[in-house]
Amino acid sequence: MAHAEWTHIFHTEANNLLHGDTWHLEFNSSIEPEQPEYGWKEYIRNTSARFQCTQCRRSWPSNRVMVVFHMRLIHGKGTVKVRRFRQNCKMCTNAPMEDPSIISENITTLMKNLVKKIRIKCYNEDLEKGFHHPRRFDVKSPHEPEHCEACKKGICTRE
Ligand SMILES: [Zn+2]
Ligand SMILES: [Zn+2]
């Protein structure tokens, strides 16, 4: 369900900008940040999202939600692997890691940034730096590094 929405928004944002090549996007939770496989380019972006604990149903917002993209273009076929970094509940013991729930507006922002990055990294287009910012949430409690996958990997945004 999330995947269909991401794919739809990606193709909408990529429309006519990716040189007529065919691109597809897939979720892949096994790609490693800062270690793209040979021939793959990387893009790491922060977004805002909500999480919900599947054990106690508690939910919380976060402005430090990392998304890693690995992309490759070969013979007119492009692939983007997407990994969304998870968080888990600080109240439950042995709480499972949860995927972020990202609103359409923020997926759109991520896809605009991604398409621009693909144009720069895979097509060597000379575009200006800068990126679109996500809609941020009102987060009251401090970020919890021990409950954040990206912090454990050392790639979480610093504020
Ligand atoms: Zn919980
Ligand atoms: Zn973190």
TrEMBL record:
Q: Where is it localised?
A: Membrane
One Pfam family of this chain: Zn_ribbon_3CxxC
Quick check: keyword Metal-binding in the entry?
A: yes
Annotated Gene Ontology cellular components are: membrane
- Coiled coil regions in record: none
Which residues belong to any copy of the 3CxxC-type domain?
46-154
Q: What is this protein called?
A: Receptor-transporting protein 2
- Which organism was this protein described from? Lates calcarifer
Its taxonomic path starts at: Eukaryota, Metazoa, Chordata, Craniata, Vertebrata
List the gene name.
si:ch211-276k2.2
